[in-house]
Amino acid sequence: MSDSETTPLRLPAIALTTIVFILAAPRMNDYLIYMLAVMVGMLAGVINTLAGSGSLVTLPMLIYLGLDGTIANATNRVGVLLGSATAATTFWRSGQLEMKGIAWLLVPTVMGAIGGAHLAAVLDAEVIHRVIGIVMVLMLGVIFLQPRRWLVENLVEPNNRRFSTVVIFFAIGAYGGFIQAGVGIFLLSGLVLYARYSLVQANALKVLLVLAMTVSAFVVFVYYDQIDWSLGLLMAGGQIVGSWLAATFATHYRGADLWIRRLLILVVIINIVKLFGLV
Of the candidates 136, 86, 143, which has an alpha carbon nearest to the alpha carbon of residue 271? Predict the structure, then answer.
């Protein structure tokens, strides 16, 4: 196996070593915190590109880097905002975004996100910390179930102009505004199962809706002054690099996505243990 083929395997190994160090380190100075923020961002970028749900890594890691639950939840949106904006622009330029009837999805998603973000902003930091732990447990089940494999291509025209669809996307938007982690799979399921989009259409629309809800939530968190810009931007920069690395090298090794999924499961389990103080 060539060096380029083994790169995807080296990345998870380096990332896992970094995570173990983060969890074990009792004290960190500012320079070390910033360096680790970039490295965790790189890991999240790789995971987002190959498996999705990078926020399951960045959100709890921001807490370990010294932020309380509320600030970590808000700061995590910096990377999400930049990543989703880049992805949405790419889909837009390629002509893959289906904009017909988009207001029926966009409006309730944005309204829900504003409400969810406001709730997250005013809740006690310890409550948010516990919610993050619960979400980790629930998303671990989602990762094992892999609900995406149950979604099949629709052969009918999309039907998003229904009251039930509006309610569903308001709820998804509220969740995304509140906590963000794993919202992509809920959006994808809603788009395919309820709005009746094909998987190809749904993948593109999912990115647009994530961008819309993130912008909405971001404005709320900026208003409440709950974003740590230094850590947020450093982690976002790392995510960009990680996404590029994964996209560049994963094509040379067909098993890269499997290894990343296994790494994600391990990281989530470690985070659950730490968040609930089991060790």
Answer: 136
Q: How far from chain centre, in Å, is Cα 259?
A: 18
pLDDT in tens, the chain (279 residues): 444 444 444 555 555 555 555 555 545 567 778 888 888 888 888 777 666 678 888 888 888 888 888 999 999 999 888 888 877 887 787 777 777 778 889 999 999 999 999 999 999 888 888 888 888 888 888 777 766 666 666 656 676 677 888 899 999 999 999 988 888 888 888 888 888 787 778 878 888 898 899 999 999 999 999 999 988 998 888 888 887 777 666 556 666 667 777 777 877 787 777 777 655
Domain count across the chain: 2
Q: Does residue 87 belong to any structural domain of this protein?
A: no
Question: Is residue 121 located within the same domain as residue 209?
Answer: yes
Give the closest residue to 205 by CA, choosing from 77, 99, 78.
Answer: 99
Residues 177 and 262 in one domain: no
- Specify the pTM: 0.80
How many other C-beta atoms lie within 10 A of the C-beta of residue 225? 9
**Residues 235, 38 contacting (CB under 8 angstroms):** yes
DSSP state of 150: G
